[in-house]
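To: structure desk
From: M.T.
Subject: fold request, one chain
Message: Could you run this one when you get a chance? Sequence is below, nothing fancy, just the single chain.
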Amino acid sequence: MEEPKKNFRIVSDKKTRVILPNTLTLIGVCIGLTSIKFAIDLKYELAIIAIILAALIDGLDGRIARLIKGVSKVGKELDSLTDVISFGVAPAFIMYFWSLNNLGKFGWLLCLIYVVCVALRLARFNITSNEEPSWRDNFFEGVPSPAGGILVLTPLVYSLSGFEFFKLNFEIVVPIFFIMISILLISKFPTYSLKKIVVPRTMTIFLLFGIVLFFGLLLIYTFKLIAVTSVVYLCFIPISLIHHQKLSKKNDGHIDRTDSHEDIL
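Reply: Done. Structure tokens follow.
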């Protein structure tokens, strides 16, 4: 009897599943780095759009990895390293070239503090993401790095949006935003996570309509929508804190549970 022919494959199916999400992650970091080049060329509109694209890719690569069962330890670490670049280093450089360089050494110090806070936030996320599933998975501890990377750009986005509600002194507003977002990144304020949201089947069509509407408005009123979304996100932080406290009382019997991690973060 003839032996069955073996199909020739360059890589196994398992490795193929791992390659796709990791490739998306690397594309995201390339886009994040390119935003710095746009900022150097004073093309701040393109720099902001590049950060938004990097954030969208960051939200997709993990979901695709789980969907096709391509999750890997390398992918998890790679995702964190790219987040430091795309949502830490890149936004800091963009804002430094746009405004913080006018503050001299203090402006550069603010950039360093922000990038360090992004790195600390991601390090804490890595050591806490392996816990047992619970209702707490619906919340992040602190602001996630992609959101932080967009929030620190809010003064620049506002200046490009055409809004004239307030005339801001950016030499004061930008440092305040950097300090505030840096604190939110390393804080333990609970913020909503949409990773495990469950949408009823009857609401799916409305969700799809909302997503299409959002991206349609993003294409037409790009900077206006980003500015409004950033403000709405900041307003939701106290709401998520109140919601978290209510759920904590209901599920754990008290508001704050003693942290079982010995790490200082």
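Reply (cont.): The domain at 13-252 is CATH 1.20.120.1760 (Four Helix Bundle (Hemerythrin (Met), subunit A)). Let me know if you need anything else for the meeting.
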